[in-house]
Amino acid sequence: MCRSLEYLDIRETGLSADAMAAGIRMMPNLQHLDVSDTEADDKLLSALTHSNLKLKYLSINECMDVSDAGIKILIKKCKNLEAISMSNCPYIDNVEFIEEHNIRVEVEEEDNDESWIKWQGKKYKVETDSSTTGEDFKAQLYSLTGVAPERQKILVKGGQLKDDTVISTLGLKENQVLMMIGTVGELPKAPVQPIKFVEDMSEGEVAQALSIPAGLNNLGNTCYMNATLQCLKAIPELKQALDQYSAGAGQLDPRKSLVSSLKGLFNQLNESGEGVPPFVFLQFLRQANPRFAEQDSQSGGFRQQDAEEFWNEMLTILDQVLKKDDATVIEKYMSGRMATTWKCEEAPEEEPTVRYEVFRKLDCHIDKSVNYLSQGIKKGLEETVEKRSESLGRNADYQSISRIERLPEYLTVTFNRFFWKASESIDAKIVKSVKFPLDFDVAEFCTPELLEKMRPARQHLREIEDKLVSERKLAKAKQDAGSNAASKDVEMAEGSSSAPFELHPDLKADVGCNPTGVYELIGVVTHIGRTANSGHYMAWVRKEKGIGGPDPAGKGIPETQHWWYKFDDDDVTMVTDEEILKLCGGGDWHTAYVALYRAKKP
Q1: HEC string of 514-569?
Q2: Are 593 and 526 in contact (CB under 8 A)?
Q3: 464: number of Cβ within 10 Å
Q4: E-only strand ranges, 20-112
Q5: What confidence tens digit (pLDDT) does each residue in 189-243 have?
Q6: How far, in Å, CA of 231 to CA of 525, rounded?
Q7: At what angle do helices 223-232 and 307-321 cross, to 10 degrees?
Q8: What b-and-e string marks burial along 415-440, b requiring 16 or more CB atoms within 10 Å of the CB?
């Protein structure tokens, strides 16, 4: 639909130049474009020359960032251009160049007039129009002379200028000089800290004041990418590794360029309060992996992609590029180690074999019997497969049991919701409800050796959490009853402390591991729709207490352990734990697809 559009009017929309350029590139048949009073600049004009060669009419009135250089590039490429409307464009001087190419220049007439005020021997020019009132007039004089409006007496025909008088009704002649009488009063002292009201702030300043993180603009079916990046950004160790990374000048490897652009993109998100367009990152992503540059044969636009595939691709590239001292941030903090035992059920005398491998995610297999995350993971770790038995000289059934012998600090869990439906040639979606916890204990999936190493830390963590639960209960009892006994119980609970413990030496030396086996959910990528390559992806990232401003509170606001940022591309809002638990599936609502858990440490 966008590709057939011929007329587009986006005056005063507030869109950034980059956002406008991204949309305009998808409109090759555009003939009439009005971007007056927007952030249009030379880059936007350059974008027009790549795909909008049918353009006939362009309106850039009040565009302060367009210059002669941008106009020249546009005229050389867009041979069908017939007219340009360009009032109040301060950086366009070479009108002759435009007219030499037989392009009509239109300039809107301004209805501004000028009046002169004489005060204490000096003249001051005041601009007026048909709607200027006496109050507006005095406000301009205040900025020019420092005389407060209530101290001004402006002499006009018939007496003094009143606040509600419209200047155009006075019948002033061109360049007529009016007289003002008044004295400058004592100027108020400036405050120690400049006062800035919310209505005077930009969108970015408001977002920063309220500590709402920035979102990512959708550049055309890029929600899969936006959602994944917002979750990965919640890993501070990854951000630290990116800050330390330097690709060097003249880098030709698109993977290294991609990582460098991710570093810059994360910095932009931290500094901005507005939606950030990830143009550079997307460009290098499509160079590093052309699959993400696939286009739809019917619409001509870029296709929707699978968020899990993009997640896996990013971890692979980051692991390849961020290698330092024979280890990477991905290996340390996001990779575990699995021990898989193969035992032939038909030949008990055959010695079991054990295979060790690195993993970056646990899969939750979904069928009719799976209602909870732990059930789905267990299905993937315990299965029966057929393979060749050397002792029997034929294929036989083997039981495969996998157990974790190293847990990473950040655990990725993917819900296997899509399957290939051959009859329709699509990745169809399983919408069945599979509940997942905010706190996830994976001890049942660990080797006995790892469980023994984690035992002291798990016991210590349990004692701490029991103490916190007791304190919350006693505090509530004190609040409800207001009794001295409850107060005393709270003081006793606050004074108690859990017994000291010693972390196992192997776990202490293993930087980036989880020493307890207990995790807390900090991020979710969800999908709404019926196939993996359609619908819409979003990110839900937990807000840390004490970071990013105070949690919402007040009458009518629900109590919650944590608040979460809901990233719908560049639209960012806040939700509670209860909303996160509703992402379990079971209908046409946002369904958890990739979950990111972080280790709970004692």
Answers
A1: CCCCEEEEEEEEEEECCECCCCEEEEEEECCCCCCCCCCCCCCCCCCCCEEEEEEC
A2: yes
A3: 14
A4: 32-34, 57-59, 83-85, 104-106
A5: 556 666 665 456 555 554 555 578 999 999 999 999 999 999 999 999 999 999 9
A6: 7
A7: 50
A8: bbbbeeeeeeebbbbbebebbbeeeb
pTM of the model: 0.64
pLDDT of 103: 87
List, for residues 544-589, the tens digit of each pLDDT value.
877 776 666 665 666 667 889 999 999 998 888 999 999 999 888 8
Q: In what order do the strands lie in the sheet with 113-119?
A: 122-128, 113-119, 177-181, 153-156, 159-160
What's the rounded mean pLDDT across residues 351-370? 94
HEC string for 195-257: CCCHHHCCHHHHHHHCCCCCCECCCCCCHHHHHHHHHHCCCHHHHHHHHHCCCCCCCCCHHHH
What is the full DSSP assignment across 496-516? --PPP----HHHHHSTTB-SS
State which amino acid sits at residue 475. A
Known active-site residue 536: yes
Catalytic residue, chosen from 32, 365, 504, 536, is 536
How far apart CA 144 and CA 278 sit, in angstroms, is 44
- pLDDT digit string, tens, across residues 453-468: 999 999 999 988 888 8
- Examine the residue annotation and report whether 78 is marked as an active-site residue of this protein: no
Q: Label each residue of 367-398 as H, E or C.
A: CCCCCEHHHHHHHHHEEEEEEEECCCCEEEEE
Residue-wise pLDDT for 282-329, tens only, equals 999 999 999 999 988 877 789 899 999 999 999 999 999 997 767 899
Question: How far apart are the C-alpha atoms of 105 and 107, rounded to whole Å?
Answer: 7
Cα dihedral value 483, 487, 490, 494, nearest 10: 180
* Partners of 117 in the β-ladder: 124, 178
- Active-site hit among 63, 78, 223, 364: 223
Cα–Cα distance measured from residue 213 to residue 274, given in angstroms and rounded to the nearest whole number: 8
Percent helix / strand / coil, the chain, rounded to 5: 35, 25, 40
Are 520 and 580 in contact, with CB atoms under 8 Å apart? no
CA 469 remoteness from chain centre: 34
DSSP 116-165: EEEETTEEEEEEE-TT-BHHHHHHHHHHHH---GGG-EEEETTEEPPTT-
How far apart (Å, rounded) are the C-alpha atoms in residues 405 and 506?
12
Instruction: Report the C-alpha gap between 590 and 597 in whole angstroms.
Output: 19
- Residue 372: alpha-carbon gap to chain centroid: 29
Q: How far is CA 157 from CA 161, 172, 177, 594, in A?
A: 9, 9, 12, 76
